[in-house]
Amino acid sequence: MKPMKLVGFLSGAAALTLTTGAIADNLNDISKEDLMQRVLAAEARIDQIEASNDSSWITEQRAEEMRNLVYDVLADADTRASLLQSGITAGYDEGAVLGSTDGNWLLKTNLLMQQRFIYNNQDGSASRDSDGDGQTEDNRYGFENTRTKFIMSGHVVSPEWFYRVDINVGSAGSGRTGTLNAYLGYDYGNGWSVQIGSMKTPLLREELVEAQYQLAVERSNVNYAFTGGYADGIMASYQGDQFGLDFMFSDGVGTGQTNWVALDTDYAFTVRGEWLAMGNWDQFMDFTSMQGSETGVLVGGAFHYETGESDTFAEDVDLWIVTGDVSVEGDGWNIYAAVIYSDIDFGVAGVTDLNSWGVVVQGGYYVTEQTELFARYEWADPDISGIEDISILTLGFNHYFSGHNAKWTTDVGIGIDAVNAGVGVNGSPANITGFRRDIGNNDGQVVVRTQLQILF
């Protein structure tokens, strides 16, 4: 029976009851027991009708059951989430993060990919094999997986015990592959920390700025000629509100990931100091300065000294490197300049000591919120007889799809004089810059590079 019919039935039953009460005097022949039996029968009938026809009652019951079921599922999910939260946390914070809820254990992973196309035109190379690779073409070009770098960092036991490991599985011919950074350390608080392992020597600022944060496609040839690169050692650091200081005792330039018995130095140390005149430290993690950025000024200087290992062929070889640099960033523009001097004292009769100089000047300017034009000039005097000074002008642009996380960089490098890329104090690889080695006074080398970068 439908609800409306049931209401009508009940109304009729009520009316009938009232009528029965009104004519009670005419029903004296009906006993009270008989009347009670009739009432009970009517109630039973009503209950039967409700049980068989009240769809609203059935719906409410089912709704209540569904609510109870939903509550049970939600409670179970909440319990599981609570159990998860009590053990680990996961998410993204400038990298994929996995850690404990008490903050004592943390693993952050990042991935850097730099995929390049490089075109090189070397004047007159058809007449000789300029770089010893068996190729003599004037024009060479090709694609390269320069960097596919996995970066793992974080802390263990407590936030004070930190670590970092970088592994580059990019093209072997480009240099800088395999394990790069691999160190652990302890943060003493108040800006002081100590770390030990394989790490960059705190020498040239251009080298210390990570590859993903450079202005051009690649660091300058001058950087690779003078850099200390990666070294095995121990470093103490301090960073305050305006001053920073690094002191590293190591096996010497270019000794990263080497065995302890490898022939290197008796001792080597590097000291770098920085003064933050304006701005904040974070803005100098890269070389760019997007529109809307505050003005910042950073002045730095470094000194490196090492002496060859006793009782080896390099016993009497001493190396000094001194550098000074300044970085200025503003609202959509940036300028960087560095001067480098190195002295190699061979200490061997008849062998000429080398006194080399290098200069790098670069700057960038945003023409839109996402597009930046830049220029760089680099010069170096290797102080080697018969070798021209390095003189290279580079022009290019960056288009930031999403900051450094997704950007496209293209530049053109022109070797004004003969280029002897990779001729440096630590034999740094030349191919990573895209330049080939010139011979004699040959000049006019042109390199076109374009790169797509993803960082997450």
Which helices and strands appear, and what pairs or packs with what?
Blueprint: H1 3-22, H2 32-53, H3 55-87, E1 89-92, E2 96-99, E3 106-121, E4 139-155, E5 161-168, E6 178-189, E7 192-200, H4 205-208, H5 221-226, E8 230-239, E9 243-250, E10 265-278, E11 296-308, E12 318-329, E13 333-345, E14 354-366, E15 371-381, E16 390-400, E17 406-415, E18 446-455
Antiparallel strand pairs: 1-2, 2-3, 3-4, 3-18, 4-5, 5-6, 6-7, 7-8, 8-9, 9-10, 10-11, 11-12, 12-13, 13-14, 14-15, 15-16, 16-17, 17-18
Largest sheet: 16 strands, antiparallel, barrel
Please compute the radius of gyration using only Cα atoms: 39 Å
> How many domains, in number, for the residues?
2
Instruction: Specify the number of helices.
Output: 5
Secondary-structure arrangement, i.e. CATH architecture of the largest domain: Beta Barrel
Give the helix level as a range of percent: 10-25%
CATH class category of the largest domain: Mainly Beta
CATH superfamily of the largest domain: Porin
> What fold name stands as the CATH topology of the largest domain?
Porin
Alpha-carbon distance between the termini?
Answer: 66 Å
Class based on secondary structure composition and strand pairing:
alpha+beta
Low-confidence parts: 1-28, 423-429
Percent strand: 35-45%
The average pLDDT value, as a whole number, equals 83
In total, the number of strands is 18
The SSE string, one letter per element, is HHHEEEEEEEHHEEEEEEEEEEE
The shape is elongated
- Order of strands, widest sheet: 3-4-5-6-7-8-9-10-11-12-13-14-15-16-17-18
